[in-house]
Design brief:
two-stranded antiparallel sheet; globular
């Protein structure tokens, strides 16, 4: 397994550039996917699931926001106008975003096996092979499902944080970004033989890139049409991110006694 010393071995740029590097891989995922029609059949099912559950999550968020607005901000006329607007906007934006995030989490869970296959295909296209360091495909799929469950488990926390006026949505966005980046890099990291604990260590060592990737992904949820392609694009972008940052990790795979699997 990869140690934290291995992950820290390569010199890295400043924090701002690292955040930007993580963010850039979201757009790289879209570009890579759109330029390769042979990947579109694999992307179709996750995209369709995302479209359905994002709309459903937005609708559920709207219904909940209508109810909690009157409960959490009673007597709008009794507070200053600027504060009323600030509290109302943050509450509605946070609850709607949390509803969308919950829909995204469900779609990621259902599409996890297909996204694992898409990630393999991307690595095979870029490197000509897929380095395998895990016990096998069944273990990797199980790890991918575990990552999807990790994001799904984080969704209620993101939802509840958004009920805290002003600062709640900020903390909710950061936590959601971390969980989403963790899920979208799960497949390529598991293929390199990293356990759940190792993958958490990888994200601690690469926190700026991880948060840059996750926050940009959450912002993309607000972009019409692009948000429906977000799920397969993030699977691609997360794979590219791992391949760009994994100095030392390929040796983990080859050191385990397994051989690269051609694609």
């Amino acid at each position: 397994m990869a140690s934290e010393q291995t992950l820290l071995a390569a010199p890295r740029p400043g924090r701002v550039l690292r955040v930007a590097e993580g963010a850039w891989h979201v757009f790289a995922g879209f570009a890579f996917l759109l330029r390769r029609p042979r990947l579109w059949p694999l992307a179709l099912m996750p995209a369709a699931l995302a479209a359905a559950f994002l709309v459903g999550g937005l609708f559920v968020g709207y219904l909940i926001a209508r109810r909690v607005d009157s409960l959490l901000i009673p007597g709008h006329e009794r507070i200053p106008g600027w504060l009323d607007v600030l509290l109302t906007l943050t509450l509605w934006a946070g609850v709607l975003a949390a509803g969308v995030a919950l829909g995204l989490a469900v779609s990621l869970l259902l599409a996890a096996p297909v996204l694992e296959r898409l990630s393999q295909r991307v690595e095979g296209i870029v490197r000509g092979r897929v380095d395998e360091g895990g016990p096998g495909l069944r273990w990797e799929v199980a790890q991918s499902l575990r990552g999807a469950l990790y994001f799904l488990a984080a969704a209620p926390g993101v939802f509840l944080l958004n009920f805290i006026p002003v600062i709640g949505p900020v903390f909710g966005a950061v936590w959601g970004a971390h969980a989403l980046a963790f899920q979208q890099t799960d497949a390529p990291l598991a293929r390199r033989g990293l356990t759940f604990r190792d993958r958490r260590a990888w994200h601690r060592m690469r926190r700026p890139e991880s948060l840059g990737f996750g926050l940009t992904a959450l912002l993309t949820l607000l972009v019409p049409l692009a948000n429906f392609l977000l799920v397969p694009a993030l699977a691609v972008g997360g794979t590219l991110l791992v391949m760009d940052l994994d100095q030392g990790l390929p040796s983990v795979a080859t050191g385990s006694g397994s051989s690269p699997r051609p694609v």
